[in-house]
Amino acid sequence: MSRSPLIARTVPTLRRAIDNLRKRKATIALVPTMGALHDGHVSLVRLAKRRASRVVVSIFVNPTQFAPTEDFGAYPRTWKSDIAKLAAEDVDMVWHPGVEAMYPEGFATRIAPEGPALAGLEDRFRPHFFGGVATVVGKLFTQCRPDFAIFGEKDFQQLRVVTQMARDLDLGVKIIGSRTVRERDGLAMSSRNVYLSPEERQIAPTLYRAMKESARRIKAGDAIASAMAGGAGLIAAAGFTLDYFEVRHAETLGPVTSRKDGPLRILVAARLGSTRLIDNIAV
Asked: Which residues are identified as catalytic?
């Protein structure tokens, strides 16, 4: 029978709980989320359970990573179903702070990441985003003091940014990327998929098909520019407005010109109606 996780809403409560775990020599894995949990999040929790003796899941919709034109107010919040999912997975603790706990009056410190945060992908369209992510994740790491932190590969640039930050700042946490969980038709699971109309939902898997086709052509020896142009054409023909569709070095996110430039990753961001989707695959 599943048990309800401990829910901490203030830093002192969280600190006491983490101190108690540390006194018992527990290893801790943190799964940072913004709630609206789906099977992709559940896969992160299951990976965390394999890595550590105790699992903490944070649920915090972080306002600093949303621009004024983005969907902070409308972002899905499904607290009751989120807790039910986490209880079913025997999660030990949920860290659920309010905005005032994370950003109290007078808060004046930000982390400004560079390197993979300035790769010209998400940062080109959302220049505020990675500063907000790095700051809140840095706080989560110092609050929860995890041995491991689990992030999905769907947000691949974010994974690289957080990995670099943890290394550069000697935060003592090992970042683990978890493979993207997909629907049966290939669409990457995302909390924002609920915004898609039924017609858009039928079109959305085109992103995955286009990436696979471009990857196939690159592996077959086609020129990268030609292979990527073909995939971009498929995406545009399906009705998307493309932000980017690029192949990059899988570790640095730097530009590449051939398969010989290192491990490759195809990354895409595109809008379908009012919904912006991102995805990526290895080549």
From this structure: 41
Q: What are phi and psi of 120, to 5 degrees?
A: 80, 25
Residue 51 assigned as binding residue: no
The answer to whether domain 6-178 and domain 191-282 are alike in fold is: no
- Of 93, 2, 82, 6, the C-alpha closest to 42 is 82
Tell me whether residue 34 is annotated as binding: yes
- 2, HSE (Cβ side, Cα atoms, 13 Å): 13
- pLDDT of the residue at 212: 98
CATH architecture of 6-178: 3-Layer(aba) Sandwich (3.40)
Q: What is the mean pLDDT of the segment spanning 205-211?
A: 98
The answer to whether 249 is a known ligand-binding residue is: no
Strand spans (E) along the chain? 6-8, 28-33, 54-59, 93-95, 148-152, 174-178, 241-249, 264-272, 275-282
Largest CA distance in the chain: 58
pTM: 0.94
Task: Report how far residue 218's alpha carbon sits from residue 150's, in angstroms, rounded to the nearest whole number.
Answer: 30
Confirm or deny that 262 is annotated as ligand binding.
no
Give domain limits for the chain. Answer: 6-178, 191-282
| Mean predicted confidence (pLDDT) in 31-50 | 97
What order do you get walking across the sheet with 264-272 strand by strand?
A: 241-249, 264-272, 275-282
- Give residue-wise pLDDT tens across range 41-80: 999 999 999 999 999 999 999 999 988 777 787 788 999 9
pLDDT tens-digit map of 2-17: 779 999 999 999 999 9
CATH architecture under which domain 191-282 falls: 2-Layer Sandwich (3.30)
Q: Could you count the other beta carbons within 10 Å of the beta carbon of residue 248?
A: 27
